Each structure stands twice: as structure tokens, then as C-alpha cells.
Amino acid sequence: MAYEEEIPSFKELLRELEILDADAGIRIEARYDGVESYIFITRSGQGFAMAVHTKMKNLVGPGRRVEFRHFSNLKQLTNHLSGTVKDPRRIFKY
Rounded to two decimals, what is the model's pTM? Predict the structure, then answer.
């Protein structure tokens, strides 16, 4: 069974990212560049990895957006999130 805990706000998310373990992750349901998406964030010794999957039902293949990005440090990641993630609906750490 996987453990999940909801993060109540974007501000709290930024605090959680500071202490994120390498075996943990963050899932955000929000608008990313204007499209409803799932955003997954993990941490490694080299920084942070982010994967974005659009929430388009019944759409598989070329029309569905999947994006992967790497950030060397927390400041790069938080700057990117602040500029691209709008109206986060639910945020979880796992």
C-alpha cells in the first residue's frame, strides 16, 4: 500500500520540496501552461526531475502531451513552477 498525504497549499508545497527525500515524490493536479495536467516531481543527487502528463480523457498518442524536465536546484524548479502552474487543485506527497 502506498502512503499519500495531501499538501494544503502551494506555499506548503515549496516547503515540502526543500525536504523531499530521494524515495519520495510530489503529484500536482493543476493547469500547466493552460492545460489540465498531472505534474510529478522527484528528487535525486543531481537535482529535481519533473514529468507532466496532460489530463485528456480517451486521448492516447501524439495529441497527448508528456514533458520531462530536469532542474539542477530548488530555485530553478520553484521559479518554473511559479511561472507555469496555475490554480493547483490537489497536491500530494507520496
Answer: 0.85
